[in-house]
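Meet our chain:
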Amino acid sequence: MKKIYLFFAIALFFLLTSHSGQAQNLTNYNLYMQNPVLYNPAFVKDGYKISAFLNNHTQWTGFDGAPKVNSFGLNACLKENMALGLLGLSSKQGITTSTTIYLNYGYRINMGTDQHLTFGLGLGLKMDKLEVGDITGTDLSDPEIIDNSFDNTTLATRFGMAYQYKAFEAQLAFPQLYESGKSNMYALGIFSYRWKVNEDFCVKPSLMLRGVKTSPMQFDLNALVAWKNTVWIQAGYRASNSIMLGVGVNVKGLEIGYAYQMDNSDAISAAAKNTHEIQLIFRMGTCERRQQNNNNNNTVIPNNNRRVIEKDKSYNLGSVNFETSTANLTSESKLVLDSLVIIMKEYPEFNVEIQGHTDDVGDATMNQQLSQKRAQSCADYVISKGIAAERVTPVGYGETVPLVPNDSDANRALNRRVEFKFTEN
């Protein structure tokens, strides 16, 4: 608990003192909840073996010289607790263009069950350029234009950290810690909570706070609703009197999202139209390994070696799935349980505890009840195949025994499982 207090003390200190620096032109992304690495390099450690994204942010369409930013990123897991990433940003505003390339490093510290702290650091180069060909109504013989003194390449750095405890997440990021030869303490604080309404729907409200010397602290309020981790919608309000709406779909690791921002301030709405953002994300695999919990080894029994089992160990015989929002077994899951029936018949001296597990999203009591119902459904099937009821014990563990940290959708999927522990009768 002391570690939690320390994190929030550090976050509050930096947010309150962030007004001591100068702000560069920081893009007001609208899809940062789906892709937090846009602001925070800690999220190159996102739980996936490989992830990549493209983002196009077009601000104030219809306004000459309004900012346009294209971003791309590629993240790769090095070890279970560290990752590397490449981030590229290309922006154009007025007659100036800027290209920044970062190499990001993320490192995670496990602080206990479903609790960890991740740090991220980005180092790179920023290349600023004056587009002389876009200049009109200006004396092109001006010495500064002739010398093109606006063109320069400088060191760029960024820093961020993220704390997660079960469904709660807090971030602190400095996306432009040093750029264009200047230190910049522009800080972002993001706080969110992932609430599992039921097996299908999840709601994630969030608050972002921004601090900078040249303007008052600003904030974003957002709420994202996801259905089966496949379709999501979001709505939000930005303190600059803007409304943000978004929608996206995720199919087999490929996600496409779109956000629309309505700028309602008199100065902007009179001169320009609204802001659009499109994002494409690809995620593949998980870099987390299965961990031992409660002296169990969570072994997957190979199809050709089912006779070699030991008592007092938990085994994964295969993926046991259920119909949406129910404890009804799918036909594929019955094939896995048929394997358990074979084992129980080959080992008449063994009993089995059927263990149901969930991820940490939502109410803990509801998760425990769901895991118990699903374990019971498996037990009923095994008993119906001729295994004595006194040899089968269903137990729902809910979210209390995760295989891996619940820090990504891929990891949460690993934690939603059914396992089998054999004991002597």
In short: The chain has two domains: 2-284, 299-424. DSSP finds six helices and 21 strands in the chain. Residues 16-23, 290-307 have pLDDT under 50 and may be disordered. The first strand starts at residue 50 and ends at 58.
